[in-house]
């Protein structure tokens, strides 16, 4: 790993690849973080612009940008930090695709050459409790996805709803930089998620560029303790 400053609120950066299938040219960097250990000077010492908010918001942002900086260093040789655009999305160098995620004390970032991977979307989510999953199902799932829940136990339903939520977040992160058009949970559906960690999603609306309704994208996922990690990678 690089010798850049690492604040005490973050563990040593890791390049462990937790997902089922490694992707050539893609760098995944992760860390665990503890907001209680965040120091007021950590942003300036890290060379990262501070953000407003409670300690949790600040720590997760800092951890995610530290991971992104290391991922970019490995891809480009330059340890730069993605800025925040007016649309709140990370601003990656023109020749790079990337994605940042964080949740419940874990943060990670992906980066890869854009001439190899057009888009990358990474998302980590805590499994929803069964009761909350049922309350949110109608917002997250399409009618066809709701049909696929029939016959599942409450725990299986909660896991499928949580995974669908995560995949749709990853899908947005991967596609939004390409289409610059917002879309929502009901605009795509999870077609399959298999025991080997592979998945397929389908768009239900036309998006800018070459993304008509019916376009299918491949994904992968893994269980991390009580979390789900999903990835959408769009080849060049």
Q: Briefly, what is this?
A:
The protein is an alpha+beta fold.
Features:
236 residues, alpha+beta, Ribosomal Protein L22, Chain A, 2 domains, five-stranded antiparallel sheet, Enbac_synth_compD-like, magnesium, 4-PPantetheinyl_Trfase_dom, metal-binding
Describe this structure in words.
By secondary structure, this protein is α+β, with helices and mostly antiparallel strands. The protein contains 5 helices and 10 strands. The chain has helices at residues 42-46, 55-76, 130-140, 143-147, 154-179; strands at residues 27-32, 83-84, 90-91, 96-103, 106-113, 117-126, 188-193, 198-203, 216-224, 227-235. It has a 5-stranded antiparallel sheet with strand order 6-10-9-8-7. A 3-stranded antiparallel sheet has the order 1-5-4, covered by helices on one side. Helix 3 (130-140) crosses helix 5.
Unreliable runs, pLDDT <50, ≥5 residues? Answer: none
- Rg is 18 Å
What's the average pLDDT? 95
Shape designation: globular
Biggest beta-sheet profile: 5 strands, antiparallel
Please tally the helical runs, counting DSSP H or I stretches of 4 or more residues: 5
At CATH level 2, the architecture of the largest domain is Alpha-Beta Complex
Structural class: alpha+beta
- Report the count of strand segments: 10
- Spell out the CATH superfamily of the largest domain: 4'-phosphopantetheinyl transferase domain
Give the proportion of residues in helices. 25-40%
Question: How many structural domains does the protein architecture include?
Answer: 2
CATH domain class name of the largest domain: Alpha Beta
Distance between the termini: 28 Å
**Order of strands across the main sheet:** 6-10-9-8-7
Look up the CATH topology of the largest domain: Ribosomal Protein L22, Chain A
Written as H for each helix and E for each strand, in order along the chain, the element string is EHHEEEEEHHHEEEE
Beta-sheet strand percentage? 25-35%
Binding site for Mg(2+): 123, 125
Catalytic activity: apo-[peptidyl-carrier protein] + CoA = holo-[peptidyl-carrier protein] + adenosine 3',5'-bisphosphate + H(+); apo-[aryl-carrier protein] + CoA = holo-[aryl-carrier protein] + adenosine 3',5'-bisphosphate + H(+)
Pfam family, one: ACPS
Cofactor: Mg(2+)
